[in-house]
Amino acid sequence: MSHHRFIVCLAGPTASGKSAATLALAQYWPIEIINVDSATIYRQMDIGTAKPSPAERRTVPHHLLDIRDPSETYSAAEFCTDTLRLIEDIHSRNRIPLLCGGTMMYYKALREGLNNLPSANPGIRRELENEAAASGWPAMHAQLQHVDPLTAQRLAPNDSQRIQRALEIHRITGKPMSQLLAEQRPNQEKPWHYVTISLEPSDRAVLHERIATRYHAMVENGLVAEVEALFNRGDLSESMPSIRCVGYRQIWAYLKGEVDLPTAIEQAIAATRQLAKRQLTWLRAQPDRHIVDCLSLNTADQIRDIVPQYWNAPPR
């Protein structure tokens, strides 16, 4: 492994204490954080994304925060391009890049390289959205079943985002997405070897409590007003990735009058727990991950013991 250069990734489910751990590490090494988070990229979305505070950002430099307006999208491909550039930049300043966050699709793209699927086609997307508005997503799922049964089989009938993408790929290429993915070329040797330190709870119930407590605190701190400001802009909708963020779309539904606030809060907490479950499932499938119990009292110390073997720099 000596020919590899190591990049440490601090991953974990939502509310596992990733930010606190990075701040503790910054006291020992000259690190800069690259955020691996598809929600904190958005400006004006601070409370519900648990974005690092201005004080935390002064303590340690953070990258890939506030880089998009909520009306814009950001792909895994853009994340990879930006991250690889940042890694070089940070190294050139004799500092250490630390990837930190919970968007597993971004980690996957970095580790495995990007597939050569066609990029989005706005015309075809609109066409598919109009068809879905007329006939509903289950009908679109049935259409996918017809052209790409393998992909359809692993998607829920209401998974609009993925159904749309799979149909779009079929319309652009004339081939099922499952076939294109099966034809992928394995990655060429990459310059970086990504090491995952995974913050995982020894007791899932305690993480669930943390998620509920944290979301109630977000509501206390003005989350509803934050979402209301986005709602009142008039150019955003729940079909956009920003508003689909967990904890936001539920408040959006409340602002539309679809549910009352206590229901929206309960639904947001349930959705956040579901997200944590998916994040943990993905992490558990990572072969060589280092597991640190995110509920232990010395999480940062445990991480600090793992890191030197990759950063070959003793704590200062």
Automatic annotation (TrEMBL):
The keyword Nucleus does not apply. Its cofactor is Mg(2+). Its EC number is 2.5.1.75. ATP binds at G12, P13, T14, A15, S16, G17, K18, S19. InterPro entries: Dimethylallyltransferase, IPT, P-loop_NTPase. It comes from the Bacteria. Pfam families: IPPT. Substrate binds at T14, A15, S16, G17, K18, S19. It catalyses: adenosine(37) in tRNA + dimethylallyl diphosphate = N(6)-dimethylallyladenosine(37) in tRNA + diphosphate. Catalyzes the transfer of a dimethylallyl group onto the adenine at position 37 in tRNAs that read codons beginning with uridine, leading to the formation of N6-(dimethylallyl)adenosine (i(6)A). Monomer. HAMAP family: IPP_trans. This is tRNA dimethylallyltransferase. It comes from Neopusillimonas maritima.
